[in-house]
Structure formats: C-alpha cells, structure tokens
Design goal:
By secondary structure, the chain is mainly α. The chain has 4 helices and 2 strands.
Length: 134
C-alpha cells in the first residue's frame, strides 16, 4: 500500500517544527505581558521588556540550529518567520487603530533578516567544522 497522502505533510515538517516553536516561544516570553508601564513622568513603555525579547531570541536559536544542522536552512528561516509573524498578528490584532499591521510587517521583515543571518552563520560554521574534522 502506498502512503502518498503523507508525503506532502512529511515535507512540511522541517518548516512546521520551527513555526510551532516560534509560536510557543512567543506565547511563553511575550504572550502574557499585555499592559504598558506608566512612569512617574507620564511616559509609557512596553508592553515588553528587553529581557523578554532576548529570551525569545535565545530560545529560538535551538530549533533554528537543529533545522539548519539537518540541512533545512530554508525551512528554518521561513518556518520561524511564519511562526513569529502569525503570533504577532494574533497578539496585536485587537489594536483599534489598525497600525498593528505595520508592526506585524516589521516583525516579518526583522525575523526574516535575523533568522536568515543566523542560519547562514550556522550553516557556514557547520561546514567549517566538517572540513576540519576530515
């Protein structure tokens, strides 16, 4: 018996894993903090603190490294970008002003550029390590 219907799903797994990891990491690091901080001078910051975003980035290094080291560089980049973009859309879509679309677009561009850069470094480092070992 042929298992042809599962083939497209299996091809999507390398991209689906980083996307799900990005969604979960966003929820863990940024999803719970929804209010802005008001300072004594009346200025507001937030809702996210710097340490939360750093934690998100460091957490996402693990699934990106795993995907790239297995030869799925494009899946790591596109999956992570799709996951972060979807999470930002869901998290910010209740903005009455409608400007959340610009923020989501910036998340998409930034995560694409950042993940592509990190993936390239991981891929090049992996090749150098393999050459040195042989």
């Amino acid at each position: 018996m042929r298992q042809e219907p599962l083939k497209p799903v299996l091809r999507m797994l390398p991209a689906l894993a980083p996307a799900l990891a990005a969604l979960a990491a966003w929820a863990a690091w940024l999803g719970w903090d929804q209010r802005r901080d008001v300072h004594a001078d009346g200025s507001t910051t937030g809702p996210y603190e710097t340490w939360q975003v750093i934690g998100l980035v460091l957490t996402l290094l693990v699934p990106v490294y795993r995907a790239v080291s297995r030869g799925h560089t494009a899946s790591a980049v596109l999956g992570t970008t799709a996951g972060l973009t979807a999470a930002a859309w869901y998290d910010w879509s209740d903005d009455a002003g409608g400007l959340f679309v610009i923020g989501v677009g910036l998340v998409a561009i930034g995560s694409l550029a950042g993940t592509a850069s990190v993936s390239a470094v991981i891929a090049l480092t992996g090749r150098g390590a393999r050459r040195a070992a042989s």
